[in-house]
């Protein structure tokens, strides 16, 4: 062999080795989580940059659901990949296991970041963690959850100003100076600084950014305070519609029609929610720009989603979540990253419990058997998956990727002995504003079976209350859930639905995924 030919072969081999060693590096992963951002009530409308930088560069899922429409239970599911009945954080209270000592001893030790940390990932968390995190009863800001190298956790619930952060276990008090303290921007600065610091690192990173927007108190950045001045909350077919006798007890208590003050309140909340999201849109742009500037963008997965949906006047409930209806359980889900097709939309139903196993598989690992959810990587990677939606029926045209067709939604109602400012209310209500219209109560406790397949599209719910109340909706004929037909159908129709719901409420880990595979037409 001629010397020149030999040199060419050697150089070619070295180039190929170098290229493969670069692509073999595990990907970075960024999870951006908003608070209370819906999809049905125009929650994504202000996210112009996010749509351009994530949705148009990757894949969006039209049917992304949370398995519990409330902050702490949903966030606990995102972290652990478990249904509420397995991680036991059933509501936003310490008594409901939100960030409690029990949570810290058990579920917190098996969150997705602990697995990524063990796989060699550098990890950062910034923003809202769990509603009761950092208070004295749960260990104060000195408690840093395991598996985080950099920890900037918000003490308590979402705020934009006048809050305390736990900075790696040390309390840092913030006031009301926009340039220093506006929380969404503070999170963005932590993120871009961390990205810069990882540019020359040989190990990958996982970054979890959890913004306060668009949760109450809906405080926009000053430059956005006059945006959307003429906007009003969407007047959907269920807006200010009385529950009558067809809905569960709490809905039947709502005054109808709503007071003008309540409508004014929710319209103002709608505008401010959109305004706060503009700062999240800026955060997304700043993160993507810094990843690109440091030449890390092409090896980074970015996921954008929310912890639950929201309602604004639907069934005469002014502002909150906690309900079984679509506006409270549907959230956005966007993902971009290496190898993913651009500007593709999928219809397969995915859940918040799928996020943890998905991230672990993207990182090159295998989700633990304790996780109830399943990785969506097969859906992301299979270029043969073709989906369409016709007549409100989802059709997945690929037998190679078997996917769930139903899932569980759960909520455990909260109530207080006394609601401040509402002396006429009996004990047992929660979240009663404006005008003492309450969004939750002890008997707002339910389990639901949501079926979404090519042949069936329905929601069936059972309440744990004195009435043993049920709600059943044909989602094809009644997408706004106006007509509860539980008492109109033959009772025999509900028997298999009850059995299926019972099986899901008892599943754990592998058995949940087996239930996914067993969800033949119910």
From TrEMBL:
Gene3D superfamilies: Alkaline Phosphatase, subunit A (3.40.720.10). Pfam families: Sulfatase. One of its GO terms (molecular function) is N-acetylglucosamine-6-sulfatase activity. The modification 3-oxoalanine (Cys) is found at residue 71. InterPro entries: Alkaline_phosphatase_core_sf, GlcNAc_6-SO4ase, Sulfatase_CS, Sulfatase_N. Residues 27-364 form the Sulfatase N-terminal domain. The conversion to 3-oxoalanine (also known as C-formylglycine, FGly), of a serine or cysteine residue in prokaryotes and of a cysteine residue in eukaryotes, is critical for catalytic activity. The keyword Cell membrane does not apply. Its cofactor is Ca(2+). Residues 1-24 form the signal peptide. Keywords: Glycoprotein, Hydrolase, Signal. GO terms for biological process: glycosaminoglycan metabolic process. Belongs to the sulfatase family. This is N-acetylglucosamine-6-sulfatase-like. It comes from Actinia tenebrosa.
